[in-house]
Amino acid sequence: MRDILQYFDTITGIVEHGAVESLDVAYDPRAMTLGNVSGVLYLQDGSRLEFRELVAIRSRRPAKLRYRYQYVRAGEALFRYDNVGHHPGVSSHPHHKHVGRHILPATEPSLAQVLEEAVRLMQESRNGKPRPAKRRRQTTRKK
User: What are the pLDDT digits (tens) for 38-72?
Assistant: First the structure.
């Protein structure tokens, strides 16, 4: 991977997942090898996956300096992964997962892995037809 724009292209491919009904994603390149990507992916049942990454390209590989992925359904956060250092007692510090009031050890996930986990939870809880789309697809890239 040469630069942050190639990484952003990878993210674009991930968020075009079939279970994503609509999205709002912003790409913010800070330098050739550094940038932020953040957004909200709205799934077919009305739940959403919120995410934010600060990524540097090092030795032709993306390195997440900061990340946060949160899955929300009916106004309640079902889980959140992040690498903020506020739980030093977790064996995987700074990486961890919030599930309810529990803080669990976790390895650094990819956006694709977190999206698949959210889709799996959505499918497990589904008890009717998908909700019709009400939001439009939107992607922005700062120059």
Answer: 999 999 999 999 999 999 999 999 999 999 999 99
SS3 call for 97 = strand
* Coil/strand/helix, residue 3: coil
* Cα–Cα distance, 60 to 7 (Å, whole number): 10
Give Cβ neighbours of residue 7 (< 8 Å, ≥ 6 apart). 1, 35, 37, 55, 57, 62
Picking from 70, 69, 37, the residue whose alpha carbon sits closest to that of residue 54 is 37
Indicate the pTM of the whole model: 0.87
What gap in Å lies between CA 113 and CA 141, rounded to an integer? Answer: 24
Burial class (CB in 10 A: 0-12, 13-18, 19+), 32: exposed
Closest-CA residue to 135 (of 16, 68, 69, 43): 43
Total residue length of the chain: 143
Inter-axis angle of helices 4-15 and 111-125, nearest 10 = 10
Of 104, 102, 64, 98, which Cα lies nearest the Cα of 81? 98
